[in-house]
Amino acid sequence: MTADIAAPMLHVLRIRGRATPESLAAALGSTPGRVSATLLELASRGLAEDTGKPRLGWKITAAGKQSAEARMTGISPEARALVAEHYETFRKLNDELKQLCADWQGRAETQGTADFVAPLAAVDSGVQRILAEITPGAPHFAGYSDRFTRAREAFGAGSDSHLTGVLVDSYHNIWFECHECFFITLGRSRQAEETARASSFVDG
User: Which of 152, 55, 146 is nearest to 100 (CA)?
Assistant: First the structure.
């Protein structure tokens, strides 16, 4: 009964390290009851454990991390090549989203969500195309499409926090997690990429 969200849940825990049942329910588009049942199932398999601190929630175990990463990296060479190819487009969109978030945070008092719906929709259209292309061969990316859509629609409906908020499944938070998923899938690291970009900027 809970198997259909067990793997996606373990994926989220691997990306985040730890998460509360409430935040997992939001990320998975599920109910607290199903999430709690699945967490207990993962715990029984030694893949996750309760931190005992409600504010921190549950965390992934070493075995859970290994299992989640195996799912991300155990794709065919052809699928990995496709992910790598589309990651270059994702990086360009990443710059666009960072600028959009900066513009949103520095917006004028007269500006609201309606003023930023169009540029967010443009970024979303791009990332949705990427996800549609890579998900068949890399199914661990599957959950991001719906999460992006929920965040975009919530923001468009006037929820300020759903673009850059930290306490909700905001577009920026989801993007950060999706970016981390690319890193793990391709065997890369955020630190190495940022260092390389900084060096390129200086050299240029």
Answer: 152
Q: Greater confidence, 180 or 3?
A: 180
pLDDT band at 192 (very low <50, low <70, confident <90, very high): confident
A 10 A CB-CB count for 27 gives 25
Residues 6+ apart with CB under 8 A from 64: 10, 13, 14, 42, 46, 47, 48
Query: In 3-state terms, what secondary structure has residue 76?
Result: coil
Quick one: tokens of 2?
Answer: 């809970």
Q: Write out the two tokens for 130.
A: 């990427």
The residue with greater pLDDT, 115 or 196, is 115
CA dist list (Å): 68 to 4, 29, 145, 157, 184: 15, 20, 19, 34, 10
pTM: 0.92
Identify the burial level of 69 via C-beta atoms within 10 angstroms of its C-beta, where 0-12 means exposed, 13-18 middle and 19 or more buried.
middle
CB atoms < 10 A from the CB of 4, how many? 12
Tokens of 17: 């390290």
